[in-house]
Write a structure and sequence with these properties.
Strand order of the largest sheet: 1-7-8-9-10-11-12-13-14
Number of helices: 8
Shape: elongated
Mean pLDDT: 80
Distance between the termini: 81 Å
Number of domains: 2
Radius of gyration: 31 Å
Helix content: 25-40%
Order of helices and strands: HHHHHEHEEEEEHEEEEEEEEH
Length: 454
């Protein structure tokens, strides 16, 4: 339960300290203060009231306590109105601590007027501030991250993100479990580097680079910008995106296996028989999915939010996923879409997206092998911003035709430096007619060749 996620939570709970503070620690502290104040009031009533310095001290206490609540409510409970740059660490706590220090100063100054010494008051203020900063700093490090808010109060997932990594959807046989050992990770990364050679570079592409020198034969004309390491979640290397089943494999039915086999077969009878990625209907490696897979290049995304929609722009193939918020009604079952029909809603700080109406002719490709949806497939995705530079992307796939059981996966998305480049998919403009005409030439040549033995 995330108390910060609800703007309607009691003020004492929202005073729990902003994006990374310990909620229950502060709630208990407020409860102790309230009990102490009540005890003091009961003691005062039994003694017949206050007069002189004790009465002034009581008024100072009440005014400062009200100011403390108001300051905490704004700086710690309404951070969506504050710049994100000052919402981290102890910065939002400083005004609240200043009120506490002011309270301590005037309580000492009024209650002990005759014995008041500036040095003693300064020491007391120092203790208050040091203790508050220590508690606030400790809770900031230990408490859960709370995503910044948009102007309309929703968790802010906007920005440029990438899921580039060497982790496959399904677990390769060299791994024994979901968490890869150091030796397994080193073996995987070494094998992949030897396989791709100089085709892949981990260095970002610099648009200001000059033209390459003129040579007789270039060893490599293209470079794929890719992270050549296994992805980490909670600091642990993941051997596969699939976390359930425990073996890291898709639980295919016979129909599901046949759908994968059919997707691998190529036909030259007409343009409709060519792979959908070759025809630029979907992207290579399925970065758009859904689920959105990591690819060997252009694995970048831009998320934009409004009150009613979330748009996910995929760099490869210039596709944009549009998620309708609030309305969970899908389009009619007879209508199929390459990326499916997506509706979404918020569960606390998590964006939940449900997608149906997949086109069975599509294929979700992935490093290590992909899958196909049937018309009855359903995907549930969960986007949770778990750090300033990280989104945890979790998904569950259900399809009674192609899968024996639902299966789940997890993937980290990291902030990307950008920019997002225009990706113009136009291979079909030239290669598609050439591929089909080449097949016709092959067929004519085969027909003109006499059978063997004649």
């Amino acid at each position: 339960m995330n108390l910060h996620a609800s703007p309607d939570a009691p003020i004492a709970l929202r005073l729990a300290g902003g994006p990374r503070s310990g909620e229950f620690t502060t709630v208990y502290a407020c409860a102790v203060l309230a009990a102490l104040a009540a005890a003091c009031d009961l003691r005062m009533i039994r003694r017949g009231g206050l007069a002189g310095p004790p009465r002034i001290a009581r008024h100072v206490w009440r005014m400062s306590a009200a100011l403390f609540v108001a300051t905490g409510s704004f700086f710690l409970g309404q951070q969506k109105f504050l710049p994100e740059a000052i919402c981290d660490g102890v910065v939002p706590m400083l005004p609240v601590l200043a009120v506490l220090a002011l309270l301590a100063f005037w309580m000492v100054r009024v209650r002990f007027a005759r014995a008041f010494r500036p040095q003693t008051a300064a020491a007391a203020l120092g203790v208050v501030l040091a203790t508050g900063l220590a508690l606030g700093g400790g809770s900031a490090d230990a408490g859960p991250y709370r995503a910044p808010r948009t102007a309309f109060g929703a968790p802010d997932l906007q920005g440029l993100w990438t899921n580039s990594s060497l982790t496959f959807l399904q677990r390769p046989p060299i791994f024994k479990a979901l968490i890869a050992t150091d030796a397994e990770a080193a073996m995987m990364e070494s094998m992949f580097n030897r396989m791709v050679g100089d085709l892949v570079s981990t260095k970002p592409i610099d648009p200001n680079n000059p033209a390459p020198p003129v040579v007789k034969a270039a060893p490599q004309a293209d470079f794929l910008e890719m992270d050549l390491h296994l992805a980490r979640i909670d600091g642990q290397r993941r051997s596969s995106w699939i976390v359930d089943p425990a073996n890291g494999q898709i639980p295919f039915t016979e129909a599901g296996r046949k759908a994968v086999k059919d997707a691998d077969e190529e036909s030259f009878d007409g343009p409709e028989g060519r792979p959908v990625s070759e025809r630029c209907l979907t992207a290579i490696g399925s970065p758009e999915g859904p689920p959105m897979m990591n690819t060997g290049f252009n694995a970048n995304y831009q998320i934009v939010q409004t009150r009613d929609h979330v748009a996910i722009s995929i760099e490869m193939n210039h596709d944009v996923r549009i998620v309708r918020m609030g309305d969970r009604t899908h389009i009619p079952a007879g209508v199929s879409v390459w990326m499916g029909d997506s509706v979404g809603w918020w569960e606390g700080d998590t964006l939940v997206v449900e997608t149906t109406n997949f086109d069975p002719r599509g294929f979700v490709g992935s490093l290590g092998g992909g899958f196909a949806w049937s018309a009855k497939g359903k995907l549930t995705e969960r986007f949770t911003r778990i750090a300033k530079d990280r989104i945890l992307y979790a998904f569950q796939a259900e399809d009674p035709v192609n899968f024996k059981q639902p299966w789940r996966g997890e993937m980290p998305m990291r902030t990307a430096t950008g920019p997002i480049y225009e990706y113009a998919c136009h291979e079909g403009n030239y290669s598609l007619p050439n591929a089909l005409s080449g097949a016709r030439v092959t067929e004519r040549a085969a027909a003109a060749t006499p059978p063997a033995g004649h």
